[in-house]
Design a protein that fits this description.
This protein has six helices and 22 strands. The two termini are 44 Å apart. An eight-stranded antiparallel beta sheet has the order 13-14-15-12-3-16-21-20. Strands 1, 2, 17, 18, 19 and 22 form a six-stranded antiparallel beta sheet that branches. Strands 4-11-9-6 form a four-stranded antiparallel beta sheet, with no helix packed on it. The chain is 31% helix and 34% strand. By secondary structure, the protein is an alpha+beta fold.
Length: 402
């Protein structure tokens, strides 16, 4: 055990050291915080080592002459022949192909894929007619067999008799035999399509497989398992929305401005995705009430993101041209509200400021800037995300010091 005076001296020395370290750290943090505070909000200053570590690279804003566009709104429609309704070919009961497996709305189907099976139901009158047809077919077969046996026996005796039987009689016997064979063959081919004896539990015939005539998805169901349907009742609606038509009504004066051999542009409001659409030749009448003419554009929709009846904004290329400012897509950052911005660098690339942007059309990997930048600005093309993280880190340090 240390003596009391030694313990007191040791504690005093330790406390003095901690106070000195805390004061030094506070001075350093205060200097750093004051340096950050001196910069306006949205500005950032980095040394050479930090810029190299973050991989910051800058480029000047590009000025280009591009074709002007016309902003409009269109409505999605299903192309002709892309939606069909499968109807019952005959009266009967609809059943699933596999137990506990029934097609559901939205399910994808391939061409000629089996959907369900239809057990054909016969009414008493139809059943009576089928039984009568089966009996008549059996009679024809039996009569044909008897005729064949008699004709063959007579031909054999005529051949044994030699010249005692005339040639005409021989031809008649051969014709009778061939007629009997033809009748027997035709009657035998009908057997698979007729009822089978004994005629018990013949109210239901062999099930008919119902298949999808096209690839697509089930849009609507009109039948449940085990339900009785009559001929012509709708069973399922199937549609192929992998490509949709966008109908865009325009005033007659604007139709002539649109360049139909150029791609139209659709932007997804929830993301930065850009979709291009081709103008297709679809005859369209002028709407007398609104004096508009509709142009149609084929929009790829492999993921079924768009729905029939949905409206969407579209940019249509026109014949005019204008000078615009453009920057690469890699320069643009989006906040939590979807607002775009970028970092602009000073001439010495030491200080960086964040600028709000208003964007126009996208061309390949570049975007038109309608507001927020000048022609002589320099923007960060690589490392913008790292700069945003560095700015957030600086804001956290200042908040902690407060």
């Amino acid at each position: 055990m240390f003596r009391p005076e030694i313990q007191s001296a040791f504690l005093a020395l330790t406390l003095l050291t901690m106070i000195s370290i805390g004061c030094a750290r506070s001075e350093v943090e205060a200097e750093a915080a004051s340096a950050k505070v001196n910069l306006p909000a949205g500005h950032l200053q980095l040394d050479d080592d930090t810029r190299q570590r973050l991989g910051i690279s800058v480029i000047p804003v590009e000025t280009a002459s591009v074709r002007t566009s016309l902003n409009a709104v269109g409505w999605f429609e299903a192309p002709l022949g892309s939606e069909i309704t499968i109807k019952s070919p005959i009266s009967g009961f609809v059943e699933s192909i596999e137990p506990e497996k029934w097609p559901i709305q939205g399910e994808s189907l391939s061409s000629q894929q089996a959907i369900a099976k239809l057990k054909v139901f016969l009414s008493p009158q139809e059943l009576s007619q089928m039984v009568q047809a089966k009996e008549e077919n059996d009679i024809v077969m039996q009569q044909s067999l008897v005729t064949m046996e008699l004709s063959e026996a007579q031909l054999k005796r005529a051949e044994d008799a030699g010249n005692a039987v005339t040639g005409i009689r021989m031809d008649q016997l051969k014709e009778s035999l061939e007629r009997a064979k033809a009748a027997y063959k035709e009657s035998k081919e009908k057997l698979p399509f007729l009822l089978k004896e004994p005629y018990e539990n013949t109210g239901l015939m062999t099930p008919i497989s119902m298949t999808s005539p096209m690839s697509g998805r089930i849009l609507a169901l009109h039948v449940a398992p085990g339900q009785y349907v009559q001929m012509g009742d709708p069973l399922w609606e199937i549609g192929d929305w992998s490509t949709l038509w966008l109908r865009v009504p325009l005033f007659q004066t604007d139709v002539s401005k649109v360049v139909t051999d150029q791609l139209a542009t659709l932007r997804d409001a929830a993301s930065t995705d850009v979709i291009f659409a081709n103008c297709i030749s679809v005859p369209s009448r002028t709407d007398v009430a609104t004096q508009t003419i509709s142009l149609f554009f084929a929009v790829p929709n492999a993921e079924w993101k768009f729905r029939v009846g949905q409206s969407h904004a579209v940019e249509l290329p026109t014949s005019g041209a204008q000078n615009v400012l453009m920057i690469p897509q890699s320069c643009i950052l989006y906040d939590g509200f979807g607002q775009p911005s970028c970092y602009a660098a000073e001439s010495d690339s030491v200080q960086f400021s964040r600028k709000r942007l208003e964007l126009g059309a996208a061309l390949l990997n570049r975007v038109i800037v309608t507001r927020g930048l000048d022609a002589n600005d320099i923007v960060v093309s690589s490392g913008a995300e790292q700069l945003a993280a560095e700015e957030s880190k600086s804001d956290l340090v200042i908040d902690d010091d407060d």
